[in-house]
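Hey, quick one: can you model this chain's 3D structure?
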Amino acid sequence: MTSLVPMWKRTRWRGFKAVGEITGKNFIIDPRVKGTVMITSARPVSRDQVYPILLSALRMQGFSAIEGRGVVKIVPEAEAKQNYSVPRGKQVNESGDRIITQVYPLQHESAAQLMPVLRPLIGPNNAIAVLPSSNTLVITDYADNVRRLNAIIEAVDQPSATENHDGVRKV
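Sure thing. Here's the predicted structure for all 171 residues.
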């Protein structure tokens, strides 16, 4: 396994250039992306860890990386959520600091009643909405948090003691 020590301290362009050289990714940086990020490591970092570290650093500064056809766009977090979030069903394969939107139809629990339970677990800049006609939650957040919310939803969205196996309540 090849290891390296991050060398992109306090510089915007050289940092992306270094990550690009290490990962083979091409970056387009939105002009609104400004600021200083300092990434240090006490030990060498493997090549596989470089990009996730960059994603975490971007997230801490309110920016996000949007992966597209051969290029990664670095944009403000709000822009990523509104224009670039990729919708997912119940199964979320992504992890880490990637913004995704999950469409989660509920089978047994009311989406409207579950929303106030989940809202405090979602960051203030992220979104949760209810589609009442289909009893569905729509959540936009970082993949790691959506995975955590999935576990909570799955634990709660269970048949009650008064439901049979078809989801019909016994009278």
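One thing worth noting: Residues 1-12 have pLDDT under 50 and may be disordered.
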